[in-house]
Specification:
The structure holds two protein chains of two kinds.
Chain A: H1 3-9, H2 12-40, H3 50-62, H4 69-76, H5 79-91, H6 96-121, H7 124-136, H8 138-144, H9 150-167, H10 174-189, H11 196-206, H12 214-243, H13 251-268, H14 276-292, H15 296-313, H16 315-331, H17 336-340, H18 345-356, H19 363-378, H20 380-396, H21 412-445
Helix pairs in contact in A: 2-6, 2-7, 3-4, 3-5, 6-7, 6-9, 7-21, 9-10, 10-12, 11-12, 11-20, 13-14, 13-15, 13-16, 14-15, 15-16, 19-20, 19-21, 20-21
Chain B: H1 3-35, H2 38-41, E1 43-50, H3 53-66, E2 70-78, E3 81-87, E4 97-110, E5 117-129, H4 132-150
Antiparallel strand pairs in B: 1-5, 2-3, 3-4, 4-5
Helix pairs in contact in B: 1-4
Classes of the chains: A mainly alpha, B alpha+beta.
């Protein structure tokens, strides 16, 4: 398909929206990038927090430069280290090219979210507002400027979802295959999306479809899911052959062990809360010791056994903590900008003091739940499809905490579409009320 | 029943219900911070050897005020334990944190050859996040929900999926 064909398919108004969303996103991210570099320099990209170091170690291992990086590779998976390794090959030691790539992909994501909203709701104001919310999200802007997986993952994941909904009504299989490939690559970057094919299958069952088409939808979702599972599974098989354990990345199990289990144990054993970091670090060291001895399987099995044992011994506390952590992650506010723009700390402190008033803010979650009700009154199936994607990342996030809004970030797509519907309704209600009041006022004057 | 009467009844009962929930929530927060056990859920912040206990308790209160907390309760559950409870803002709806400062008279002794008592104090601080932000969201959600159910369906954002009608 050449550019002229694409242009003829897309209306002028659509192009204007694309340019608006992409422009807002790009300008905000680039300005942030320039200010960030002036404050922390390019070296600050690596030592903002622990994660970039892990990815770089794993990338160096992939390039055959740093043998201990194999532990990090086992932990974080292959996707992002491969991106960093490619950047090293093409652009040398600096990772600024990766940040520029993330900024571009993050800007494109706002267009994709707009398109998903447009496909699912057919409501232009809701679609535009959801795109603007993604474009202006501080979480999205700060993550695009950090050496972490989220921006590329969110782009690939959103692209996969968009192509999935597009392929449902198509006769050729191109978009279905592309959706699976995009989703599979996303899972290689972050294993959190590993179970998302189940949500896609459920969505295929739920989306309003013409009579007699449901079977076709299920076939297509099955194809997408199989590809989406097969790509990361190949890496899992590599880990099985190399480390005697099938996993895409070990970070999820390790997080559940060192955060959730540690928190439950502290609570149930009546220990002081200040002992939590000590217990968390000691559990981490045990896994690390096994890794360094080459016992990857033992480390994973021991972690799984500890998680299972804690869940069996303290099921109520485990569940309560799990949902409490999930809720905290769903309402967590961005905190990465404090590290990236340290000289702007007083400004962000003031903003947080008056708006967020702490490290969580349930405003967006509340708006999205309201949006769910509003959309459900129009089309229950679409509302449930959107809520499923949001709920999926909420549930997945229940094992780790203290990482700000990045854990729940991939749910931004559906969360912002639902919130946008609520904002559109609030705007209409206010403008109608204002018209009524003004009308009554002017009638009285007459 | 006219539309206006039903609206007044609906919103009136909703506001009353939300006010009751708010009062219960605020009381729950206060109960939680009062019952917070300094042995397992507070951090030791200070150890002091001072002879004048009243002066020391005043210092602790001033410290809490300087941190921006408004003192909402002072208690002495045991003869050697003093508790001061502060709220990050005066009004619960705007407050995000509750803090309990527990002062323990840990060591007592006699100083030198005079008979003045020298006392050793341990100070613990424990926190509790208030539910005020969540409550505000609950209020907003409930009122908007009521508005959405009362609103004409045309007011709601239209949803016409374009998956099969591109």
């Amino acid at each position: 398909m050449n550019l002229t064909t694409i242009k003829s398919r897309i209306s002028t108004r659509e192009w204007q929206t694309f340019i608006l969303l992409f422009g807002i996103s790009l300008i905000l991210r680039l300005v942030y990038f320039i200010i960030m570099l002036s404050q922390i320099g390019s070296s600050g990209l690596y030592d903002q927090f622990n994660d970039p170091v892990k990815y770089i170690n794993a990338a160096d291992y992939l390039m055959g430069r740093y043998q201990p990086g194999q532990y990090d590779l086992f932990l974080v998976g292959v996707g992002y280290p491969a991106v960093l390794a490619l950047s090293r090959i093409l652009f040398g030691q600096s990772f600024l090219a990766v940040i520029i790539l993330q900024i571009l992909l993050s800007s494109l994501t706002s267009i994709i979210i707009y398109k998903i909203a447009d496909l699912l709701t057919g409501n232009r104001p809701t679609a535009v507002v959801s795109g603007i919310l993604v474009a202006t999200s501080l979480t999205s802007i700060s993550l695009a400027n950090a050496l972490v997986t989220e921006s590329i993952y969110f782009f690939l994941f959103s692209l996969s979802v968009y192509l999935f909904f597009r392929c449902l009504d198509e006769t050729n299989w191109r978009n279905a295959v592309l959706s699976g490939v995009s989703g599979g690559c996303a899972v290689l970057l972050r294993s959190a999306g590993g179970f998302f094919p189940a949500i896609l299958m459920l969505s295929a069952l739920l989306v309003p479809a013409p009579a007699g088409r449901r079977r076709q939808l299920l076939y297509r979702s099955l194809i997408v899911s199989v590809i989406m599972v097969a790509i990361p599974a190949a890496w899992g098989v590599r880990n099985l052959l190399t480390h005697d354990f099938f996993t895409i990345s070990a970070t999820g199990t390790l997080a559940a062990k060192t955060y959730l289990v540690a928190k439950v144990r502290i609570e149930e054993e009546g220990r002081h809360i200040r002992e939590f970091p000590e217990l968390r670090d000691s559990l981490y060291r045990v896994s690390l010791k096994h890794f360094h001895e080459g016992n990857f399987r033992l480390s994973q099995e021991e972690s799984n056994a500890l998680i299972a044992e804690t869940a069996t011994m303290f099921p109520v506390t485990m569940l309560r903590n799990f949902f409490q952590i999930a809720l905290d992650n769903m309402t967590a506010v961005s905190s990465l900008h404090y590290l990236q723009l340290p000289r702007w700390r007083p400004f962000f402190d003031t903003l947080d003091h008056y708006w967020n008033r702490g490290d969580t803010n349930p405003a967006m979650l509340t708006l999205s739940l309201l949006g769910f009700v509003l959309i459900a009154r129009r089309n229950m199936r679409i509302a449930v499809v959107l809520l499923l994607a949001m709920g999926y990342y909420g549930i997945i996030s229940g094992v780790t905490f203290g990482q700000g809004s990045r854990i729940f970030y991939p749910a931004q797509g559906s969360e912002f579409i639902l919130a946008a519907a609520a904002l559109v309704f609030i705007y209409r209600s206010i403008s109608m009320a204002a018209r009524k009041i003004l009308g009554r006022f002017s009638t009285r004057r007459l | 029943m006219s539309g206006r009467t039903s609206a007044v009844l609906l919103y009136g009962s909703l506001v009353i219900a939300l006010a009751v929930i708010g009062i219960l929530w605020r009381n729950y927060d206060r109960r939680t911070i009062i019952n917070l056990d300094y042995k397992t859920a507070s951090y030791p912040v200070m150890r002091a050897k001072i002879s004048d206990s009243r002066q020391f308790l005043m210092t602790i209160k001033d410290r809490l005020k300087k941190q921006g907390f408004k003192i909402i309760d002072e208690r002495q559950p045991q003869p050697s334990v003093w508790e001061t409870i502060g709220q990050s803002r005066g009004f619960w709806l705007l407050a995000t944190d509750l803090k309990k400062v527990t002062v323990i008279d840990a060591v007592s002794g006699v100083r030198g050859d005079s008979l003045a008592t020298e006392r050793g104090y341990l100070v613990f601080e424990g926190f509790h996040k208030t539910g005020s932000k969540t409550f505000i969201c609950v209020v907003f959600f409930s009122l908007m929900l009521a508005a959405s159910f009362r609103a004409n369906k045309e007011m709601l954002p239209s949803v016409t999926p374009r998956i099969f009608h591109k």
